[in-house]
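Hey L., structure's done. Input below.
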Amino acid sequence: MAAMWKTAVISGGGSGLGLRMAEECLSAGGKVALLDLAYGEAALARLTKAAGGNLEGRVWRYQVDMRQGEAVTRAAAEAFAALGRIDLALNSAGVQHVGEFENISEEQFRRVMEINVMGSRNFAAGVLPYLQEGAQLALIASLAGIVGTYGYSPYNASKFAVVGLAGALRLECAPKGICVSCVCPPEVETPMVEEERRMSPKATAKLKEFAGTLQVEPAVREILEQLLERRYMVIPGARARLTYRLAGWFPGLLRRVSDGIVRKALAS
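Output:
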């Protein structure tokens, strides 16, 4: 594996994939600036352990709503001042609202779009002025940004948009020597997913079985490996990569398989 980044700015660093990525950077001797709305005691304990028992001079925490562009910009500027440089900027903040489209209100749909899409935009806009040649910007999208999923209308719409944003930024940043990566994991066992399962339709769960579910540890391990290889499209999990290839090479076949899974689930 290539050498770990020495400095990182991570949104959504208070839980889930963002927190685990922050731990990995700290364990390798790096420094991190975290953007999130809240940091629980368990998260702080994990960060402290990864930092060798002392957060001072290793971790900077900013309480930020990713929908607020000016607040994200200020936090990015303060993070750069604290870190001195930014080797990795990772946007991991995101939300989900699962359910059939007709049961999702405009407000619920808008919230997912604002946090996932505008949050990604605000993060990129905030950090890009401080990224120099050799730095890396990574946006966490989802396999749901590549293939549609039953009960995922707001999440699909938002993550397809994040994949599109990453694609445009890759082209714009390449001449500056800045690497852009788009991370598209399948379902990962995070607090967001645990909460989602309580209201997921049966058809949603069956479709997820096809793409596979990953625990946080192996997911982050694969994400790290692929990011450090400076790949553009980062997809952890063998079943997820198969789904991605089917979507690109045999989209009609994937649609037929998905249709069959949904019909069977709805009939049971």
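Strands lie at 7-11, 31-36, 59-63, 88-91, 136-140, 179-183, 187-188, 213-214, 233-234. Residues 106-127 form the longest helix (22 residues).

-- N.
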